[in-house]
Write a structure and sequence with these properties.
The structure holds two protein chains of two kinds. Chain A is an all-alpha fold. Chain A has one domain. Helices cover 70% and strands 1% of the residues of chain A. Chain A contains 13 helices and one strand; from the N terminus they run H-E-H-H-H-H-H-H-H-H-H-H-H-H. The two termini of chain A are 39 Å apart. By secondary structure, chain B is an alpha/beta fold. Chain B has two domains: 199 residues, P-loop containing nucleotide triphosphate hydrolases (Rossmann fold), CATH 3.40.50; 134 residues, Coagulation Factor XIII, Chain A, domain 1. Helix content of chain B is 27%, strand content 33%. In chain B, strand 19 and strand 20 form a beta hairpin. The N and C termini of chain B lie far apart (77 Å). Classes of the chains: A mainly alpha, B alpha/beta. Chains A and B meet through strand 1, helix 3 and helix 6 of A and helix 2, helix 4, strand 4, helix 5 and helix 6 of B.
Amino acid sequence: MTQISKVPAHEPTTVYIKPSKGLAALNLRDLWIYRELIFFMVWRDVKVKYKQTLLGMAWAVIQPVMTMLVFTFLFDRVAKLPTEGVPYPIFSFTALLPWGLFVVALNQGSRSLVAHNNMVTKIYFPRLILPMSSVFAGLVDFAIAFVILIVLMFYYQVAPAWNLLWTLPLFLLLAIITALGVALWLSAINVQYRDVNQALPFLTQFWLFATPVAYSASVISEKWQVLYFLNPMAGVVNGFRWALLGIGNGPDITLWVSTGISILIFISGLFYFRSMERTFADTI
Amino acid sequence: MATAISVKNLGKQYKIGAAETKFRYNMLRDVIVDTVSAPIRLAKAMIGKSDRRTNQNYVWALKDVSFDLEEGKVLGIVGRNGAGKSTLLKILSRVTEPTVGTVSVRGRVGSLLEVGTGFHPELTGRENIYMNGAILGMRRAEIDSKFDEIVDFSEVTQYIDTPVKRYSSGMYLRLAFAVAAHLEPEILVVDEVLAVGDAEFQKKCLGKMGDVAQQGRTVLFVSHNMSAILRLTQEAIVLNKGQMLLRAPTQEAVDFYLSSGQAQAGQRDWEVEDVPAASAPFRPISLRIKNRSGKVVDTVRSTESVIVEFEYQLDAPVTGLRVGFYLSTMRGEYVLTSFDTDAPNLFEKFDSRQAGRFISRAEIPADIFNEGRYTIGVNASSFGVRRYFMDENAIAFNVDISGAPGTHWPEPRVGPVRPRLNWKIEKIDN
């Protein structure tokens, strides 16, 4: 077997192929083996996204800033919504950070399997990689938008909350889990029912209204609070405001409700995805 | 010697007929009921309680297949379209899961049908090599160490930092193939039926396969080309309707396959169950490629005319029917389209046809084709009204060019046609 020894990076291992029963095992080992593919997919998505555009990476700045300006005009100047003492541009931009990440997951992630159907029908790789790398690619835009936020905070001389160093990473993780959970469900359903494609624009818009991005969650009356926070993104957005600006009531029952729903969507999404995975190549 | 592949009682069931139900709208009421119940069906399907038993049919694409293959052996797989060959390869390369049975595979499985998968037109050649390598399961260090070799093999060194969307299709294929060829899997599966590219490129694939086999690696080879199977494999299995009929030394297996009447060389037959219900009243029976003397053949000569014969049944009279074919290269470039009522006199006579059995026969004149393999797709439709039946990939045939113009130069010529043109050479000074 001399020719195999020419391939130092790879030892022949035996793979057992059999029908997976019920809720298939998560097979995290394969995901680990293919970790470089996740990196390459993210890198490709980022690299290709702004190719042959005049403004290039500037779009990652323009999009959230324009949204923020429109919101500022409509909800601050016209509707004069309460912002708990924070300048409205900062108030909305803080929420637009996780929201932008979520929108990418919703749109790119949900379409990821169908968009790469030639890969799905031709070769084996853990299919989880496709929605995962779509979500991770959103982190790059997130990072760029985060720099703008820092600039804005300097400009408006808003001091960050002291505990952001450890709370912000946690809320970012929560945002990723939420985004990935939804992407897992929708991408798997989309393989069989392209209705998802049709529903996405509407769903994105509806979800934006149901999330305290443009307005403060405090405008929702007390008795509806828990119900309102069944929307996992409400918890994420409020958490970001609390972590960065120190406004809102911090970890309370509403946050735990949202976090619980996020984790539920994520875990169930993983299992649903895995159980559908075996027929992706046949039904796509 | 160790066992590379061990297949036990493998079976794969597919759902068919889901599309048929779509054509059963007879009344507006049905449409409304169906539309209203769609969300309920979606919900049912999502919790796994799809209406399996009501209106969907299941078919075994592969059933009770068992075999062991030792390391370093080359195994051929023969069988007609739909026999389960590709399904078997897809299960072995883990693209799809079996319904029953188990397979154990020792080592990495690579296939030449994944050529170019994941290539992105906006990325450069260099970037695509890394991307494609990662998709095929190569480590970054492994790609680094083979990078120069891959670039040399692909012969696109000069354009390696150019986006591949600026490549010619030949360059694109060469680069894609170079990556796949350097994967060095322990087990190589080759589905020649699905192979892309022109004859030249396919030859290169077969050459690479031969090399791999000589290095002592395990190869599974699917082909309709019996001479390639005979040349490249020692042993072969014969599949028919998902079941394994025979495993034997290649010569014996090929003889069995050819004599058992399943071979489709030059002829394609449609069983009743192969035809979608939506085609009614049109029902294809058989499509034949014949040479000048009327013999059904797989290989025709470029210097002789070729007969394409399509036999079909009309279960009811049809008005405005036209039956014809598309001809394309294996690369998917169309060469021509022709229908049986193209000529005005035939159009007048056969625009309306009675129920019954028909044959539409076309003669393609001599001196048309260049060397290579061509695909014929059939189409039966009423213009602007309805398409009864279409099969884009009904049959394929080879063209031999001995005696064709210019063959005294032993060089491949580009282009799908090789007509005998009327050249004149004049000397115009004194």
